[in-house]
Amino acid sequence: MEMLIAGNWRGAADGRTEEVRSPYDGRTIDTVPVATVQDAQAALDRAEIGAHLQRTTPAHVRVDILLRAAALADERAEDIAQTISAESGKPITEARGEASRSGNIIRLAAYEGSQLYGSTLPLDANAGTGLDKIGFTLRQPVGIVVAITPFNYPALLVLHKIAPALAAGNAVVLKPARATPLTALKLAQCFVDAGLPPDALSVITGPGSSLGDVLVTDPRVRKVSFTGSTSIGTRISSIAGVKKLSLELGASCPVIILPDADLELASTAVAAGGYVNAGQVCISVQRVIVDRRVEKDFLDALVPKVEAIAVGNPKEEDTRLGSLISEEEASRVHTSILEARHSGARVLTGGDRDGAVVTPAVVAGVDPRSPLSRNELFGPAVAVSSAPDMESAIAMANDNEYGLGAGIFTSDVAGAVQAMRQIDAGNIHINWSPLWRADLMPYGGLKGSGIGKEGVRSAVQEMTEEKTVVLHGRPW
Ligand code: NAP
């Protein structure tokens, strides 16, 4: 496929292309241009025009365009799902689930773009100010949004940026992950075919390492919305300059299991939440902290459920766990599991590697200070540690540089209330794992997991700016 620069499907300025390959079997799926720095600058130049056009377009016109794009995303959901599965190695059933949310995210964003309310200010409550003035706020689009996305949800994470950005009246330059550019291009096609003004959207393909700095440092860009690793997010925050930043970064999400938990429910949730998308989810269950009084019963319930996860070719309907995004990533995950075993942890099931596939693993007796527990794994393994009581479990959950999601299993409301107050995570689930998201809910991390919130209403807020206006009358 070609990349999209302001309505034109075209190649890179120097004509270079690269192959997009299946991580599962290495077959070539398609080729895409390797954008140059000049291409990125061309996209930004056109975005300047697009931002002006979008800002002067009434919201109801933008809503109509987005609703048409949503209908096209619905119609094309099967093709989008096949593309997601092929380029990411995700099982086709999971890819269908992801693709089927596309239209709804665009529709939710379209609605939020029609809700840019301001407020009136009670200026006369300020001592020294009378009734002769009226103050109010106006919301307007930020202008140009640069969106940079990771490989693990090639449709959802793209749409959580471009749909609210366009709905709010901005122009967008998107740089999707190099491993998964095709899904982003197919989604962009929906907006183009829906009649989006050409200058409002560009999608440039190629390496973030050479394109990222140009995009994030350009002073014409008012907002950078980044989802990816904490290391690159940190780099962006140090060079971006004066602009709004949303950084959705890494994680090592805990689940706490208290002695009064429903262990069947908890083990079912962990067996899903630790292994969806081969564990390559920022809100994946990575650390289970189980009260030691129920540790054995919990593991007895968990292991058979994990062993039942069907590993195989992502194209097949029965497959529940496909490949990781690359053989290098699979090798890194495999090594982490082996290192945990060498340090005394017990691998109760899984953890073997074949190419880019790692079988789903349960690792018990993990030292909570060890790398398998502390660092982001982004692979299909869950590290189980035990705690003597609730206070220690919460302290262990918080003893981590990240704070994206957390889950707690208990049948006691008081324990749940204490946990939701004390756990430092942006999303907390009571009686489910952190791997759960509704596209309209505020979503984002604390601590090293980032700043800012996504979820369409929050994203529209963050992609608009507020102006305060005061009308000065005369005292009467
Ligand atoms: P990544 O390596 O950080 O890449 C993310 C994006 O940044 C890609 O498009 C990448 O381009 C680009 N990039 C690379 N170098 C850059 C630079 N110097 N400047 C600007 N952009 C640059 O992350 P990933 O491996 O794709 O994704 C996994 C990570 O994403 C995990 O840490 C995961 O936790 C995180 N994540 C977080 C959330 C959340 O909501 N908090 C959601 C999903 C994923 P290339 O692909 O061309 O390198």
Q: Care to give the gist of this entry?
A:
This protein is an alpha/beta fold and 476 residues long. Helix content is 39%, strand content 23%.
Describe the model.
This protein has 476 residues and is of the alpha/beta class. The protein folds into two domains: 3-249 and 449-469, Aldehyde Dehydrogenase, Chain A, domain 1, CATH 3.40.605.10; 253-438, Aldehyde Dehydrogenase, Chain A, domain 2. The chain has 16 helices and 24 strands. It has helices at residues 37-55, 59-75, 77-88, 92-100, 102-113, 156-167, 181-193, 208-217, 230-239, 263-273, 295-307, 327-342, 371-374, 390-398, 413-422, 456-462, and strands at 3-5, 8-10, 17-21, 28-33, 120-121, 133-141, 144-148, 171-175, 201-203, 221-227, 244-248, 253-257, 285-291, 346-349, 353-354, 357-358, 361-364, 381-387, 402-403, 405-409, 427-430, 446-447, 450-451, 464-472. The strands form seven sheets. It has a seven-stranded mixed β-sheet with strand order 14-17-18-13-12-20-21, sandwiched between helices. The protein has a six-stranded mixed β-sheet with strand order 9-8-7-10-11-23, sandwiched between helices. It is globular and about 75 Å long. The structure holds NADP nicotinamide-adenine-dinucleotide phosphate (NAP). Residues 148-152, 157, 175, 177-178, 207-209, 212, 216, 227-229, 232, 235-236, 248-251, 282, 376, 378, 404, 445, 449-450 line the site of NADP nicotinamide-adenine-dinucleotide phosphate.
